[in-house]
Every structure is written in structure tokens, then in C-alpha cells.
Sequence to fold (149 residues):
Amino acid sequence: MFLTMSPDSFHKSGGFTLIEVLVALAIVTLGMFAVVTQLNRYAMSASYIEQKILASWIATNTITELSISPEWAPLGTSELNLEFANRLWRWRAEVTETEIENLRRVDVYVSLSAKPQQIIHRVSGLLEPPVPADYPPTYWIKNSGGLTE
Fold:
């Protein structure tokens, strides 16, 4: 007893052809490539934003330290390397005169120590001269109308 198959029985099967499988694989490959590309962009953006935030903190901390220093920041440029958030950073502060006698401008540039030419963040601020040593401290007391001297 022999089983014979007619040529029509090959076309009536419910499977996929090789061409259909290859097209489906190509579509899945393109989709996966797009997902990997987006994940890479996300990782790069997250790293860049993290660097910008850390550099911003370093710059604002530097301006704050200069503004509360007991000595007025000298004119000119100063640089410092520091470790912050397990990375080595470099900040450069440029203090210049302004048109107002008791104000100095400071520009702080922050970069990674490995790439000092690549500025990650820049912050500018104004510095006042420090309070004289013999200046009496201000005491603030709270009353019902708010804070007074």
C-alpha cells in the first residue's frame, strides 16, 4: 500500500514559506536594531545629564565658597583639581572687575580632569567684599509681623 500525494496537497498545507519566514526575521531584526539604538541614546543622554548636574554643583559650590570667604577673591585665574562623586574634576575660576567698585565678576568653568579643554558647565556670579572683622553681627528675631533686625 503506497501513499500517493497529489501536487495540490503541497499548496494546501498551513505552514509558512521560506520567503515569509525570511521577511518576518528581517522585520524583527529591524525592530530590535531600533530598540538597541534607542537604549544606547538613552544611556548616553543619562550620562551627559549626570555630568552636567555634577559639574553644576561643583561650579555653584565654588562660587558660594568664594562669596563667603573671609578674604575677597583676588583678580585673575585660579584652578583646582578635586574628586567629587568618585570622579576627578577640574574647575577654573576667572575673577574680573566690574563697573561697580564693590563687585567682582567670577566665571567658573568645570571639566573632567582627563579632558580639561572640554567644558561641561559654566556658571557666572558676582562677589561682594567680605564683611569687615569689626562689623557687628546682625541678630534676627522673629515677631508676629515677620523677621526684623
